[in-house]
Amino acid sequence: MNDVWPLVHAERAALIDDLARLDDARWEEPSLCAGWTVHDVAAHLVDTARTTRLGFVAGLVRAGFDFDRQNTRGVERERGASPRETLERLRRVASRTSTPPAPLDSRIVEEVVHGEDIRRPLGLSRAYPSEAVLRSLRLQLRTPASFGGAKELTARVRLTATDADLSVGDGPEVTGDALSLLLAVSRRRVALSELEGPGAGTLAGLL
């Protein structure tokens, strides 16, 4: 397996470039993450880039083993007093290779999915490298929902990418480009309108 870090670092750099062109008001627009603004998601990416295996475990214990509480605290900790301050923090961590106790490909899932959480509401687009999207999608489809993945979905529908050699699961087929499939299985319902096939309705009902 190729090293994931060049992909991660490229996505961080691309997002930094996009964020640098925004005025401050746009940072306060809602992201695709319920209850989080664009600024909050950027702060979350600072937090996850800083996270080490030991630090993750310690933070989870302090949060009472509540992942949502842990994430909220991370955003509060890393969100700067202004968008420029948060952007500078993101620049400083962009080349890091630390990771929580999770598969390394979870780092590229984080960057691609949260990149879309920010870009889509702002009307921005990115042509993601195919390898980044496919590695993210494959990881999500083999990771249980209890760990943020969508493995259980593959027992109900077959997900087929129209722009790559990937077809996973059993049941009625759902087709769409790999990025749309990735967002859908990552519980971003905005991507459901981009999917087709006899299993599309079933998938929508499962999310």
Strand content range: 5-15%
Order of helices and strands: HHHHHHHHEEEHH
Specify the number of helices: 10
Integer average pLDDT: 93
How would you sum up this structure, described in words?
- There is one protein chain.
- The chain has ten helices and three strands; from the N terminus they run ααααααααβββαα.
- It is mainly α.
- Strands 2-1-3 form a three-stranded mixed beta sheet.
- The longest helix has 17 residues.
Which secondary structure elements does this structure contain, and how are they paired or packed?
Layout (H helix, E strand, L loop, with lengths): L4 H16 L3 H4 L10 H13 L2 H10 L4 H12 L4 H11 L12 H17 L7 H13 L15 E4 L5 E3 L3 E4 L1 H8 L14 H7 L1
Parallel strand pairs: 1-3
Antiparallel strand pairs: 1-2
Helix pairs in contact: 1-6, 1-7, 3-5, 3-6, 3-7, 7-8, 8-9
Structural features:
207 residues, mainly alpha, 3-stranded mixed β-sheet, 10 helices, 3 strands, globular
